[in-house]
Amino acid sequence: MIFEFIWNLASFVIALGILVTVHEYGHFWVARKNGVKVVRFSIGFGKAIWRKVGEDGTEYVVAMIPLGGYVKMLDERVDNVAKHDKAKTFSSKSVYQRIAIVAAGPLANFAFAICAFYLMFLIGVPSIKPIIGNIASESIAANAELTNNHEIVEVAGKATIDWQEVNLALVGEIGSNSIVIKAKNTENQLVSTHTLNTTRWQFSPEKASALTSLGISPFRPEVHNTLAKIAKDSPAEQAGLEVGDTLIALNGEVLKSGWLDFSQKIKKYPEQQVSITINRFGIERILLITPQTVDRDGELVGYLGVSPTVDEFPEAYKININYGVFTSLTESVQRTWHLITLSFDMIGKLITGDVSVKNLSGPIAIAQGAGDSAGYGFVYFLGFLALISINLGIINLLPLPVLDGGHLLYYLIELLTGKPVPENVQETGFKFGALALLALMSIALVNDFNRVLG
Fold first, then answer.
1. Which residues contact 207 (CB under 8 A, 6 or more apart)?
2. Which of 20, 87, 120, 301 would you label with 333, given CA atoms 20 to 30 Å apart?
3. Cα–Cα distance measured from residue 426 to residue 379, given in angstroms and rounded to the nearest whole number
4. Could you report the per-residue pLDDT of 291-310, keeping only the tens digit for each?
5. Are 131 and 220 in contact (CB under 8 A)?
6. Is the separation of the CB atoms in 385 and 116 below 8 Å?
7. Is 241 left (phi over 0), alpha (psi -120 to 50) or beta?
8. What's the rounded Cα separation, in Å, for the pair 315 and 301?
């Protein structure tokens, strides 16, 4: 648990540091190009742990609290400006220049996402075809006559080559009364069309995925009761379990449902002695074992320290999402645009109530995502960075006065009216924006804690 916490935290700090630097550099670069003097470029808030004044006169800072950053530009509204520097102030620039400077941060995040996806597609992403393993009886998918061993090739008009694309397409249809899915029979390659009636679709991300809530389970290789690994110094090793042992019964009850049955039941016995019947070289034995107590997402459960034997994924089900130099650029732009439009669509559905505020995620969920993606490998971490970069750009475009989007709203009003928004109105707006942002962050944090605590 301690290692997992440190890993997630380190991955989160690295990811956020990269994305904040990209965002603030967007502001910094365009400001400099428009002749604005940048006083400070800070990554993080609070006390500086590193600082340097460059030849350009800008103070570069890395601060202790890695939850954001800022670019401080010379501004007559807040600084005492010498006469020879008045032309270098942010406030002296035209409204179009100020719009460009403010918009550059979110746009830099979108550009970074395109670059990250481009590199990811060039390297290649190992993935799995979206082949259905099981359809729950009397589910929405079952009523639409979706069946096992069919590959989902299209959702709501969007082509899907792996499960990530299927999930994204399904999430984009939240609030719709129906979803059209095309599936290909893996045996005869015939494509069938299925219309899912989603008028009563109950999707709660904290409880189940979009797929599971519709009654769809992805194909997974068969898991056997034969042990493939015994953790060192675990209760299983201490009790004498060995690689190759086949689990037959727990406390005298035969494991009819295989490994899933065993793994669910053993969790109920933390620090309680249990008897496990095994088959070793054709001979049945009974071992007495006391599972340790471990914390799994806030729940104390029993732990043995064993892993089962799992069949390999069929080669025909594996894919490597990989494109050439030019095609990767097209694909990365399309992926970025799709995620931008999907994110704005989700914001709209939050406002209309089609999506619950319980779906909002905060820094804890982001940290877990950073740790998980980093653990899977570099290409997956690139994909995570791209996704969070897009979200960071979109959040900053929200029309809240404390964010870039709020400033852009003021400048748009200035363009329309021909004069700046009064200072007192701006000040009131900043206070409102800060409260609204704090409320959103509080909801996201509460959701994070609820997910962790189960």
1. none
2. 20
3. 43
4. 988 877 667 888 888 999 99
5. no
6. yes
7. beta
8. 36
CA distance 93 to 119: 37
Residue among 426, 438, 423 nearest 401 (CA): 426
Cβ atoms of residues 381 and 120 within 8 Å: no
pLDDT at position 42 is 93
- For 176, the 3-state DSSP assignment is coil
Q: In 3-state terms, what secondary structure has residue 435?
A: helix
The answer to whether 445 and 451 have CB atoms below 8 angstroms apart is no
Contacts of 438 (CB under 8 A, 6+ apart): none
Note if 55 is an active site residue: no
d(Cα 368, Cα 406) in Å, to the nearest integer? 30
pLDDT over 70 percentage in the chain: 88
**Worst-scoring range by mean pLDDT, 50-54, 60-64, 409-413, 429-433?**
429-433
Instruction: Report d(CA 205, CA 361) in Å as an integer.
Output: 10
Backbone dihedral region of 271: left (phi > 0), alpha (psi from -120 to 50 degrees) or beta? left
Cβ–Cβ under 8 Å, residues 144 and 196: yes
Reduced to 3 states (helix: H, G, I; strand: E, B; else coil), residue 90 is coil
Determine the Cα–Cα distance for residues 117 and 329; give it in Å rounded to an integer: 8
The separation between CA 179 and the C-alpha centre of its own chain, rounded to angstroms, equals 24
Per the CB < 8 A criterion, the answer to whether 18 and 370 are in contact is no
Q: How many Å apart are CA 138 and CA 413, to the nearest integer?
A: 54
From 24, 154, 165, 331, active-site residue: 24
407's tokens: 């400033």
